[in-house]
Every structure is written in structure tokens, then in C-alpha cells.
Automatic annotation (TrEMBL):
GO cellular component labels: membrane
Signal peptide start and end residues: none
Matching Gene3D superfamilies: 1.20.5.1930, Histidine kinase-like ATPase, C-terminal domain
GO molecular function: ATP binding; phosphorelay sensor kinase activity; protein dimerization activity
Coiled-coil stretches: 157-184
Top-level class of the enzyme under EC nomenclature: transferase
SMART domains: HATPase_c
Protein name (database record): histidine kinase
Domain of life according to the entry: Bacteria
Provenance organism: Streptomyces pactum
């Protein structure tokens, strides 16, 4: 980063200085400038008089309040300047105080004050020069152009200040919007992690409970089956731990490049393994049926479809008292329909509610789809979820 220039540093210091201190220094500088003509008169000029000097001071002293009361200051200087010029003791070569107040008015005053004062100064200067002895034609152009330049500089300062204020306000708005977006993203991420953890734990615990209840029943009559049940419990626990590590890994703020890489989340390709695991672990007859031509799905939709099927099968194992279940994937041109049905006792509540089923609806909605849960046409329980495929989702977003 390059160092700031001395001029930039000086301007920055002036902006933080007490305004009255700066304006007092400006007034003193203007008073010194208007006094030079009398302190060092040219040959033939009128000598310095006390009244003339007081009139010159009247064009400089009010500048101390130029920012506190710009219009009142301009009025005072506007009266003193032509009075000094008409006094001929001697008239000023340059209207130093007038330039300062015109700049200040253009930068700080209201529109009607700026316009009225600019018109008054242009007319007043023209009339004053006309009554001045030995006035040259170029003096009209010089004085009028000086007034316009001072006013233009003030207008430029006002515009720059308004532009800077707009940029600062926009930066504050963007910062607030960025903070709100970050908060929303964090809330969505927490909700996603909560859904994943619920699905993983509910599925694993349901399988372990089923096997744990069956183990003591057959431990004496069928030791091999009891051993298989305990193996299933261990397998379900290990699988849950693996998936939990994968989910909780996203909570780390930083992971070294040499650290273990997180495996991808399961998708539709893992549905057959899920069906087989549920069937082997619980004795439930689970069948996977696929129709239509498979199409590419966005990664988040793949994970959502797997978790929805996992949650639906978990509910079947825990609540349905079913003997069989079917997981269906029906591929259409712009969407895929995931259907999970069982032959159990059906929904226990009229709306088929529950934390897990709420998560099913949330997952479907987050992917641009929808979910319907409730009793099946032939009894039992059914979950129907429609999710957009890649082409359909792009069209919806476009």
C-alpha cells in the first residue's frame, strides 16, 4: 500500500479539526489579504483610512460563522463588500470575502439561497464596476468569471460530499444485507444439519432397537440368529457414527489440507444399499422399483431424496407394524417421483404429522419440489415426493 500524499494527509486533518478554528483562520487570511492594498498602496492610490479598514474587516470577520450560519454570513459580506467599493478608500481589487461566501453558499445553503445570492452578486458586481472610476472592460469579465468559478467550486464540493455520503450509506446497507444473508445461510445450514442428524440417528436407533428386542428372544433357541442381530446392531451403530462424522465435519471452521477428506453424502445410488440394510436388519420385506429413464439430479437433490427415503423407512420400522414396504422411483422428463409405501396400520394422526415428516416436507421444498404424506389407497402409509431434475430446475430458475 502506497503512503498517503502530504496534501491528502493535510485535508484529512482539516476535516477533523474544530470548524470554528478553521473558519477563524480563513477569516484572518481574508482580512490580511484585503489589508495588503492599504498597507502597501500603489502610487496614486488613496491612503489607508480607519473607516476603509473597518469596511474591509466587515468583509472578513463574518466568515468565522460561515458554516454555522452560511446565509446570514453571506448577507453581511454582501452588504459590506459594495459599501467598501463605493467608499473609494481605496476599492478592493479582488472580493476575497465574496469568493469565500459564494463557495460556502454553493456547498451548504438551500437552493433558493444559493440562486438568489449568485444572481445578487453578479448584478451587484456589474453595477459596482460601472460606477468605478477608470474601470476597464476586462474587469467585468474577470470579476464575473471569478464569482462563477467560486460558486462552481462550492457546487463541486457539495456534489462530492453528497456522492461520498451516498457511497457510505450504500456500504452500510450492503453490510446490513450481507449480515442478514449470513444469518439466513447459518440458519439454513443449522436446519439442514439438524435434519440430517435426526434422519441418521432415528434410522440407526430404530434398527438397533428392533434387533435388540429380537436378540433376547432367540438367544437360546437360535444362537446364530441372535449373533446376527447383535452384528446388525453394531453395523447400524458404525454406519451412524460414520455419517455423523461426515455431517459434523462441516461445522469445523478450518480443516488442514493434510487432514482427512470428508466422503460425499449418499445419493440415489445408495438407495439399493439402504433397502438391503433395512430388510436384513429388521426382517421387513423391502423392494426397490425404478421406472423411466434416470436423469441427472443436483447434488443437494440427490442427498434429499436419499434422506427422505431413509426417514420414510425409519417411520415404517418404528410406527407402522408393517410386514412389507416398497420404495419407488418414477423418472419423468422434468421430475422424479419418490414413493415409499407400506402395508402397516396407516397414519396415527389425521395429518400424518411428526418431526421427521416435517423434515421430509422441508427437504422437498428446499429442492424446489413438494411432498404429500398420509394413508395409502389400499391402507398403510405413503410418502410421495416430487423433485425437479436438472433441466427442469434450470428452467424454473431461469
Amino acid at each position: 500500500m502506497s503512503a498517503r500524499s502530504p496534501l491528502t494527509s493535510a485535508v484529512a486533518r482539516l476535516r477533523t479539526t474544530n470548524p470554528y478554528a478553521v473558519d477563524t483562520a480563513v477569516a484572518a487570511l481574508v482580512l490580511f489579504a484585503v489589508s495588503l492594498q492599504w498597507l502597501f498602496p500603489d502610487e496614486g492610490d488613496d491612503p489607508l483610512t480607519g473607516q476603509g479598514w473597518l469596511l474591509g474587516a466587515a468583509t472578513a470577520v463574518p466568515l468565522v460563522w460561515r458554516r454555522a450560519a452560511p446565509f446570514a454570513t453571506a448577507c453581511a459580506v454582501s452588504v459590506a463588500t459594495p459599501t467598501q467599493a463605493m467608499h473609494h478608500a481605496p476599492p478592493p481589487d479582488l472580493m476575497y470575502g465574496g469568493f469565500v461566501v459564494l463557495y460556502t453558499l454553493a456547498a451548504l445553503a438551500r437552493p433558493w439561497q444559493r440562486r438568489m445570492m449568485l444572481a445578487g452578486w453578479l448584478i451587484g458586481v456589474a453595477v459596482t464596476i460601472r460606477h468605478r472610476e477608470d474601470a476597464e472592460p476586462f474587469e467585468y469579465a474577470f470579476q464575473l468569471l471569478s464569482i462563477v468559478c467560486a460558486y462552481a467550486l462550492g457546487t463541486l464540493a457539495r456534489t462530492q460530499r453528497a456522492y461520498t455520503a451516498e457511497l457510505e450509506d450504500r456500504a452500510r446497507r450492503l453490510e446490513r444485507e450481507r449480515a442478514a444473508d449470513t444469518a439466513r445461510a447459518m440458519a439454513q445450514e443449522r436446519s439442514r444439519i439438524a435434519r440430517d442428524m435426526h434422519d441418521i440417528l432415528a434410522h440407526a436407533v430404530s434398527l438397533m432397537v428392533v434387533q435388540a428386542e429380537a436378540g433376547p428372544v432367540v438367544v437360546r433357541s437360535d444362537p446364530a440368529r441372535a449373533e446376527a442381530a447383535f452384528d446388525a446392531i453394531a453395523t447400524a451403530g458404525r454406519d451412524a457414527m460414520t455419517q455423523l462424522r461426515r455431517i459434523l465435519g462441516v461445522l469445523k471452521e478450518e480443516q488442514s489440507a493434510a487432514g482427512p477428506q470428508r466422503l460425499p453424502q449418499p445419493g440415489l445410488a445408495a438407495l439399493s444399499g439402504l433397502v438391503r440394510q433395512v430388510g436384513e436388519s429388521t426382517g421387513l420385506r423391502v423392494e426397490l422399483r425404478v421406472s423411466g429413464e434416470p436423469r441427472p439430479l443436483p447434488p443437494d437433490t440427490e442427498v434429499a431424496a436419499y434422506r427422505i427415503a431413509q426417514e420414510a423407512l425409519t417411520n415404517t420400522v418404528k410406527h407402522a407394524y408393517a410386514s412389507s414396504a416398497t420404495v419407488g422411483l418414477d423418472w419423468a422428463e422434468d421430475e422424479v417421483t419418490l414413493t415409499v409405501t407400506d402395508d402397516g396400520r396407516g397414519p396415527s394422526a389425521p395429518d400424518g404429522g411428526g418431526h421427521g415428516l416435517i423434515g421430509v416436507r422441508e427437504r422437498a421444498a428446499a429442492c424446489g419440489g413438494g411432498a404429500v404424506v398420509g394413508g395409502g389407497p389400499d391402507g398403510g402409509f405413503r410418502v410421495v415426493v416430487r423433485l425437479p431434475v436438472a433441466a427442469g430446475r434450470r428452467a424454473a430458475l431461469g
